[in-house]
From TrEMBL:
Pathway: Cofactor biosynthesis; thiamine diphosphate biosynthesis. The keyword Transmembrane does not apply. This is Probable tRNA sulfurtransferase. Residues 61-166 form the THUMP domain. Its EC number is 2.8.1.4. InterPro entries: Rossmann-like_a/b/a_fold, ThiI_AANH, ThiI_fer, ThiI_N, THUMP_dom, THUMP_ThiI, tRNA_STrfase, tRNA_sulfurtransferase_ThiI. Its main location: cytoplasm. PANTHER family: TRNA SULFURTRANSFERASE. Gene3D superfamilies: 3.30.2130.30, HUPs (3.40.50.620). It comes from Caproicibacter fermentans. ATP binds at residues 184-185, 209-210, 266, 288, 297. GO terms for cellular component: cytosol. The gene is thiI.
Length: 392
């Protein structure tokens, strides 16, 4: 019995004249994720991608797990591929789905007939298959409204496919179709979620992390690498740039008003990140800020921060509350890592009473005590580059 994986396209099908370029990028991403799992044939037809093992060593289980995290796929399922004879389809349905059909009480059959030369139409296929499965599984009864299990039969041009309930895919559009941007990544909950959300819109990521040894530890930096590896299961490979930031923070502490420390620090972070982003061919920056969540994320503080950047700044979490962010963090498996109690550079120099509504002219005046250009150049000249390769 030949088993394959069926991948259903989502938003990609709406792309009109650009659709083919989206599909080609998606196929490339799929083949990359299957690397190391054996030999597979991957091709697209009728808004469905067929992933077919070429040999017995191909790991279908791990392939399905990896493909569930590829952006651009609306749903996926393992399916049995059979010839287009009704008797063959019925026998395959009873055998291939024996496990789930034996374990439930109610079911229904859904059918899609793309090959209009097939002698039965979709309602007739459902009727034939439903009656046959009832004769084979006395535990079953039909429930077309709220079945425990749905048997799906697709009759397409090349073959017929039998499968059960499909798994929801990652959705979005393929990574690599939405340009390239740099995510300012910390060890907290928010920025990994922001990275995931922008990758879901097709953005290829470069990561910029600010470390402040000896105030921050190697373990804190490793935590960020681990978070990016989790995000990379969806976003693919990326490079992490670790910026040595302790000297900048010490200079700010020594020369600037304490209540403006955080906003000045973030402005210098934006300048460093922008320089790295431009060197890497990025067209925008990404942050994990949510309006009003902390003192540095008030509207006035964000205005001051953005004034330091000369490229667009995307904030996909800007209107979300913490509960919504935590829910996504849990779903993409970054939450437990994010709450590990390792310090980051944004927390070790926090002022007691930060200015929540800073005025840009006063912030810029306070910055005159610093040689910002020299500090940024020194930081960027000493960055550490780390390749991030997703697990699996």
């Amino acid at each position: 019995m030949k088993e394959i994986i069926l991948l259903k396209l989502g938003e990609v099908v709406l792309k009109g004249l650009n659709r083919r370029s989206f599909e080609e990028t998606l196929l490339k991403n799929i083949r990359r994720r299957l690397d190391g799992l054996g030999s597979f044939e991957v091709h697209e037809r009728q808004s469905t991608i067929y992933v077919t093992p070429r040999d017995e060593d191909a790991d279908l289980f791990t392939a399905q797990e990896r493909l569930s995290k590829v952006f651009g796929i609306a749903s996926l399922t393992r399916a049995c591929e059979v010839g287009k004879k009704m008797e063959t389809i019925l026998d395959a349905a009873a055998e291939y789905l024996r496990g789930p059909l034996s374990a439930v009480k109610t079911f229904k059959v859904e059918s899609k007939r793309s090959d209009k030369q097939f002698p039965l139409n979709s309602p007739q296929i459902c009727k034939e298959a439903g009656g046959y499965l009832l004769s084979k599984f006395p535990n079953l009864r039909v429930d077309v409204n709220h079945p425990d299990y749905t048997v799906r039969i697709e009759v397409r041009d090349a073959a017929a496919y039998v499968h059960g309930n499909a798994e929801r895919g990652a959705g979005g559009i393929p990574v690599g179709t939405g340009g390239k941007a740099a995510i300012l990544i910390s060890g907290g909950i928010d920025s990994p979620v922001a990275a995931w959300m922008m990758a879901r819109r097709g953005v290829e990521l470069t990561a910029v992390h600010f470390a402040s040894p000896p105030y921050t530890s190697e373990r804190a930096e490793q935590k960020v690498r681990d978070l990016l590896t989790k995000v990379g299961a969806y976003a693919g490979r990326m490079t992490m740039f670790t910026v040595p930031f302790a000297k900048v923070q010490e200079q700010i502490m020594a020369n600037c008003p304490e209540e403006l420390f955080t906003v000045i620090m973030r402005r210098l972070m934006m300048r460093c990140a922008e320089k790295i982003a431009r060197n890497e061919g990025c067209g925008a920056l990404i942050t994990g800020e949510s309006l009003g969540q902390v003192a540095s994320q008030t509207l006035e503080a964000i205005v001051c921060t953005d004034a330091a950047a000369n490229m667009p700044v995307f904030r996909p979490l800007i209107g979300m509350d913490k509960r919504e962010i935590v829910e996504i963090s849990s779903r993409i498996d970054t939450y437990e890592l994010s709450i590990q109690p390792y310090e980051d550079c944004c927390t070790v120099f926090t002022p007691k009473h930060p200015r929540t509504k800073p005025a840009l002219k006063y912030v810029e005046k306070a910055e005159e005590a610093l040689d910002c250009a020299a500090l940024v150049d020194e930081c960027v000249a000493n960055v550490k580059k780390t390749p991030i390769t997703p697990l699996g």
